[in-house]
Specification:
By secondary structure, this protein is α+β, with helices and mostly antiparallel strands. The protein has three domains: 2-121, DNA Polymerase III, subunit A, domain 2 (DNA Polymerase III, Chain A, domain 2, Roll); 134-242, Roll (DNA Polymerase III, Chain A, domain 2), CATH 3.10.150; 255-373, Proliferating Cell Nuclear Antigen. The protein is 18% helix and 41% strand. The protein is built from six helices and 26 strands. The strands form four sheets. Strands 14-11-12-13-26-25-24-18-22 form a nine-stranded antiparallel sheet. It has an eight-stranded antiparallel sheet with strand order 6-2-3-4-17-16-15-10. Helix 1 (7-18) runs antiparallel to helix 2 (78-87) and helix 5 (267-281) runs antiparallel to helix 6. The longest helix has 15 residues, at 267-281. 36% of the residues are buried.
């Protein structure tokens, strides 16, 4: 196997594939990067058994300056190989595999020789031939992930909650995540999904990596399912993830249908106030801020307190407030994550009681996006 390639084009795809390679894997060959050169181009593959990424560098794209002198395949130690490639002196590099999987990498006057492994021992990627593919624009799918993945659990004691639950019924894609203290739910209409129905749980870590891969130049993301794997196609890159097994809890009953107090806030302004209040609350053991609402006098205040440092109090400016007086305490970090997911929107926060979960929805699109936070009992 021997090829020459433009180093910048190679590094771009190498960085993509490396997202799936972990040094902590129990399968030694998975610490390596698989390279396959054939007539169509150069295929790079990385995997940690949970996620796998494969991308193709086309031979017929002049920007890649890819010339394949002899086809073949090799697995190279990913970390060393990546460090070498990124430090080579010239714009182009040549890789030549000789006897016994010895691999020579040359660029200008620099030459490295590293030991490779037999590519035949690399695990095969799952075969997914599902016909029911759904397609979303890249920016919409990235936003969907970022708005829901914030609420997945980090506790392995309930593995099912470490994923985002996706269901597709009647052309409506619903994504829900909860760690039992908060919940995020987003709906998207998919008129093109005709007959497809989905009910899967995708690990939050996989989705976070996927969102980082979706650039502004990726117009569409295609999603396909098999029994225990999901495949996302982004241009020439394939992203595989295992699915979580089990039944996701019924979260619809957690969302209250009515409220006794509601207030409208500018999300960015409220976020800044919560950030200021949490400067002190983070110094205390319980990390709680308190919000008081007095609709009769159109007054809202937020309090942060640390017995060791001091306290903070700030008057808020809701654009509208209705209902009963209320005093409620909550974890400011949950609130900050929720508010960031709304961007520059105006939001409505609806409360039922000081100890019941409260909801945040955008005033413009309240049917399709909801964040829910459980308050903290302070007495």
């Amino acid at each position: 196997m021997k090829f020459t390639i433009n180093r910048a084009a190679f590094i771009k795809e190498l960085n993509t594939v490396q997202r799936a390679i972990s040094s902590k894997t129990t399968i030694p060959i998975l610490t390596g990067l698989k390279l396959v050169a054939d007539d169509s181009g150069l295929t790079l593959t990385g995997s940690d058994a949970d996620i796998s990424i494969e991308t193709l560098i086309h031979a017929d794209n002049p920007d890649n300056q890819l010339a394949i002198q002899s086809p073949g395949a090799i697995v190279l130690p990913a970390r060393f190989f990546s460090d070498i490639v990124k430090r080579l002196p010239e714009d182009n590099m040549t890789l030549d595999v000789t006897e016994g999987f010895q691999t020579e990498i040359t660029s200008g006057s620099a030459s490295f020789t590293i030991n490779g492994l037999d590519a035949n021992n690399y695990p095969h990627l799952p075969e997914i031939d599902a016909t029911d593919a759904i397609t979303l624009t890249g920016d919409v799918f990235r936003e969907l992930i970022n708005q829901t993945v914030i609420a997945v659990s980090n506790q392995e004691s309930r593995p099912i909650l470490t994923g985002v639950h996706f269901t597709l019924v009647d052309n409506q894609l619903l994504a829900v995540a909860t760690d039992s203290h908060r919940l995020s739910q987003r709906k998207i209409e998919l008129p093109s999904a005709a007959s497809a129905t989905y009910d899967v749980i995708i690990p939050g870590k996989s989705l976070t990596e996927l969102a980082r891969m979706i650039g502004d130049d990726n117009p569409d993301v295609e999603m396909r399912l098999s029994e225990n794997q999901v495949l996302f196609t982004i241009g020439d890159t394939l992203f595989y993830s295992r699915l979580l097994e089990g039944n996701y809890p019924d979260t619809s009953r957690l969302i209250p249908n009515d409220s006794t107090t509601s207030a409208e806030f500018d999300a960015k302004g409220l976020l800044a106030a919560i950030e200021r209040a949490s400067l002190l609350s983070h110094e205390s053991r319980n990390n709680v801020v308190k919000l008081t609402l007095d609709p009769g006098n159109n007054q809202a205040k937020i309090f942060g307190n640390s017995p060791d440092v001091g306290n903070v109090e700030e008057a808020l400016a809701p654009s509208e407030m209705t209902g009963d007086e209320l005093e409620i305490s909550f974890n400011p970090d949950y609130m900050k994550d929720a508010l960031r997911s709304f961007g520059a929107a105006v939001i409505t926060i609806a409360f039922t009681s000081p100890l019941r979960p409260f909801t945040l929805v955008p005033t413009e699109d309240k049917e399709n996006f909801i964040q829910l936070i459980t308050p903290v009992r302070t007495f």
